[in-house]
Design brief:
12 helices; zymogen; S8 family serine peptidase; tripeptidyl-peptidase activity; serine-type endopeptidase activity
């Protein structure tokens, strides 16, 4: 057996071992295989009108998994007493099922049951191994462990947190709109950030990745009615058994509703596909692949408001997701990711024991996604009076941002003056974020969640805000915007399409003129960005 590169388990804190997992426990495993052929280098400076995107059918045929590779994994599964559940050629994966005893024997690993703050999970305690004939074919094996991997990047305002606590104490109550909260809506933000007028997202599909929680149609109807808009068309897509599961008290529902309500207010005529998956590395990998390669709904932009410090992922997980984002770029799909809500260190004490180091949040640190940082916005009437780096508390309520420890400095970011990491060694890697927007819960977003109108902030709000903007751009442009990063750092630099944020810090990095590791290039000026892309 050959050790699978990148499969060493990530370090996990605050977990208590409960002993070996039962041999008869049923496990579904996603085996990720190599591409049929490498992707050609992307044209970094071509505007959307000059880009050549692949169709999903073309991508599957040219760069998906080959039948031979999937057959090789299927033959191995049969010898190991595992069952093939599904083949996903475009996503380069095959799902196998079997007992824990057979799975661990087949992949030469070991698992235990662990207890943690979110419940009880399986945890892999050894690397994955594959037989020699699969060495070089298999690039990842996910699902042997199912420890929660990611956190939603939203924050309640102080007043809303108190209301949420009261709601959790009375789960049967349905608070009235007399408790309506303050805050901006997506409509307000679109006006303040000068999103192009006369567009509504028609013809576009916005994908949203969720690792828990759910939405209530009654809440969506009530919320959008309050905005004078019809509720958008929303479809729940199940991945790995994940479902639309709204529940009291609050759980991850706040994340799901924030995402839909912010993006829906910006692009109300867009279709929304919400991909629900379990909160695990397998669930996250499979949900992203499902959205990128969905040839039914064909999303043109994906919003992701979940993430975790890079150090908490396995290398195989980072690689599989990054390659899915690279595929999105080849397909002309823009991916917007929240940069985190716990400052430069990205380790909220409420979620474990901080290690004292700075961390970039993944997936925002992937070079193929638009990393979305946070600001604190002050407005008088309909005019912005000031906008600074969001830093209400550097460890628990501040924008993520910094320097990746996992991804090298991209060529298109070479002239952005990305600083050395504040960690020992001063490594220079991919700088995060790329853009920023209003995120402080003190100046947050008015949304409706589980019958209650409340105020929520966090970079979770920025990702769907800009996913909505991309849907508007895609509606107007001759073809989809696609991968924005090389344009922001290349031909769009100096075009006036971004409003620089120069004041503040995130507890590790300071804002300044030009790009910085708190707010990136700053806030998109929507109508100017559209004009620059059309030029």
């Amino acid at each position: 057996m050959v050790k699978l590169q990148g499969s060493v388990p990530a370090t996990s804190a605050d977990m208590r071992s409960l002993g070996p997992a039962p041999d008869d426990e049923r496990i579904d495993v996603t085996v990720f295989v190599r591409r049929r052929a490498p992707l050609a280098p992307h044209s970094l400076d071509a505007k959307p009108g000059q880009r050549r995107y692949l169709t999903r059918a073309e991508f599957a045929a040219q760069h998906g998994a080959s039948d031979a590779d999937l057959d090789a994994v299927a033959a191995f599964a049969q010898r190991a007493g595992l069952v093939v559940v599904e083949r996903r050629p475009a996503a380069r994966s095959i799902v196998l099922s079997g007992t824990a005893g057979r799975v661990t024997a087949a992949f030469g690993t070991a698992i235990e049951r662990v207890e943690h703050a979110a419940g009880i999970s399986r945890r892999r305690t050894a690397p994955v191994h594959v037989p020699p004939e699969l060495d070089g074919i298999v690039e990842g094996v996910f699902g042997i462990d199912d420890v929660p991997i990611a956190r939603p990047h939203f924050k309640f305002s102080k007043e809303s947190a108190q209301a949420a606590m009261l709601a959790s104490m009375s789960p049967g109550a349905e608070p009235s709109d007399a408790q309506a909260a303050s805050g901006f809506t997506g409509i307000d933000m679109a006006k303040l950030y000068d999103f192009p007028a006369g567009l509504d997202g028609s013809g576009q599909c916005i994908a949203i990745i969720e690792l828990g929680g759910g939405y209530r149609s009654t809440d969506l109807k009530a919320y959008f009615k309050s905005l004078g808009l019809p509720a958008p068309h929303v479809t729940a897509v199940s991945v790995d058994g994940g479902k639309n599961s709204p529940s009291l008290p609050w759980s991850a529902d706040a994340e799901v509703m924030l995402d839909i309500e912010v993006a829906g207010a910006v692009a109300p005529k867009a279709d929304f596909a919400v991909y629900f998956a379990p909160n695990s590395e397998q669930g996250f990998v499979d949900a992203i692949a499902a959205a990128v390669h969905d040839d039914v709904r064909k999303p043109s932009v994906i919003s992701i408001s979940w993430g975790a410090p890079e150090s908490e992922w396995t290398d195989q997980g980072l690689a599989a997701m990054d390659q899915a984002f690279e595929a999105a770029a080849a397909l002309g799909v823009t991916v917007c990711c929240a940069a985190g809500d716990a400052g430069a260190h990205d380790q909220n004490p409420q979620n474990g024991t901080p290690d004292g180091l700075a961390h970039a949040d993944f997936p925002a640190s992937s070079p193929y996604v638009l990393g979305c940082g946070g600001t604190r916005l002050m407005v008088s009437g309909h005019t912005i009076t000031s906008e600074t780096v969001w830093n209400d508390d550097p460890t628990t309520s501040a924008t993520g941002g910094g320097v990746s420890d996992k991804f090298a400095l991209p060529s298109w970011q070479a002239d952005a003056r990305v600083p050395a990491s504040i960690n020992p060694g001063g490594h220079v890697g991919r700088g995060v974020p790329d853009v920023a927007g209003n995120a402080s819960p003190a100046t947050g977003y008015r949304v409706r969640v589980d019958f209650l109108t409340t105020t929520i902030g966090g970079t979770s709000a920025v990702s769907p805000l800009y996913a909505g903007l991309v849907a508007l751009l895609n509606q107007k442009l001759p073809q989809h915007v696609g991968w924005l990063n090389p344009l922001l750092y290349g031909p769009l630099a100096g075009s006036g399409a971004m409003r620089d944020i120069t004041s503040g810090d995130n507890g590790g990095y300071a804002a300044g003129a030009g790009w910085d590791a708190c707010t990136g290039w700053g806030v998109p000026v929507g109508s100017t960005l559209l004009a620059a892309l059309e030029a």
